[in-house]
Amino acid sequence: MTVQQLEYIVAVDNFRHFAKAAEFCFVTQPTLSMMIQKLEEELDIRIFDRTKHPVEPTQTGEQVIAQARIALKHLKQIKEIVENEKNIVKGKFKLGIIPTIATYLVPELLHQHLATHNDVELILKECTTENIIKEIMNGNLDGGVLAGPLNNSELVEYPVYYEKFYAYVSPHDAAYKKRKINLNTVDINNIWLLENEHCFRGQIEHLCTRKRKSSSSKSAIRYESGSIETLINVVDYNPGITIIPEMHAMALNEDRQENLREFDNLTAVREVCVVVSKEYVRKTMLKIILDIIGNSVPESMKNPELKQYVVPLQSD
């Protein structure tokens, strides 16, 4: 059993395709297939079911691949420990970012990264919170930028900034005449929300539920969107409101700024943090990433006192 063989079975599992895995590993398909077959013969099992299309691991193969991921992750950490002790800061940092943050953070983040002139190759990937956590745990991502707190014992969270929630109100809605929005008086059915896969939606549901425990409405959803921008467009032409984070609100043009409202007697924020595996060892590189992200947002959003107003990720 070799490290190379472990890398090959992980690659096939990632791509579920021998040719694509071979291309990723910079070897020919026959070479990759032969090395995996030798490992299967050594272990006296079948790791992959080659009759399936796309190829799938067998039940035992899934366990072998999971352990291979752990082994490769630990081998990588040995090198990273040495580099960290020698204060060598170079290499790749793969960072996942959730969509409701990526749209407005990534452009400035890239600008800040290029301005630092360091030897870190920053690789960004936009994906959901669930996938970020999964990819961190299997070693495909070094860290993630998402809403917290997650309270996951396998991860370490570094809060970076706090952004307030604002109501974006339709000019066609009666609430538009109010300078502040009281959620106790808002019809929950008139709030436009993101799809279920977004943790931002969970925070808004929690916020609305907290303010209206006695609501008899069965659903707060009439249309599910994958983006905040789509929801804003919907509200521009239809009665109702949506709730957006501060970074998104700051990017609105002057006309749309007129549709923003603060909440009455309510301060609500989301905590944006960087998360890494509790086993992550490249602390110097991590500090560089944290500094870059911190420099990408206004100072007013980095006030730790705002933490007391953080809305939980899930509704009650």
Give a summary of the structure in a few sentences:
Helices cover 42% and strands 21% of the residues. It has 316 residues and is an alpha/beta fold.
Whole-number radius of gyration? 23 Å
Q: How much helicity do the residues have?
A: 40-55%
Count the helices. How many?
11
Instruction: Count all strands and give the number.
Output: 12
- Mean pLDDT across residues: 86
- Within CATH, the superfamily of the largest domain carries the name Periplasmic binding protein-like II
Separation of the first and last Cα atoms: 49 Å
The 3D shape can be described as elongated
Oligomer: single chain
Structural class: alpha/beta
Q: Compute the number of structural domains.
A: 3
Please indicate the percent range of residues in DSSP E strands (runs of 2 or more): 15-25%
The biggest beta sheet reads: 10 strands, mixed
Sketch the topology as an H/E string, one letter per element: HHHEEHEHEHEEEEHEHEHHEEH
Residue stretches low in confidence (pLDDT < 50, at least 5 long) are: 212-221
CATH class of the largest domain: Alpha Beta
User: What is the fold-level CATH name, i.e. the topology of the largest domain?
Assistant: D-Maltodextrin-Binding Protein, domain 2
CATH architecture of the largest domain: 3-Layer(aba) Sandwich
Structure characteristics:
3 domains, alpha/beta, D-Maltodextrin-Binding Protein, domain 2, 316 residues, two-stranded antiparallel ribbon, elongated, 12 strands, Arc Repressor Mutant, subunit A, ten-stranded mixed beta sheet
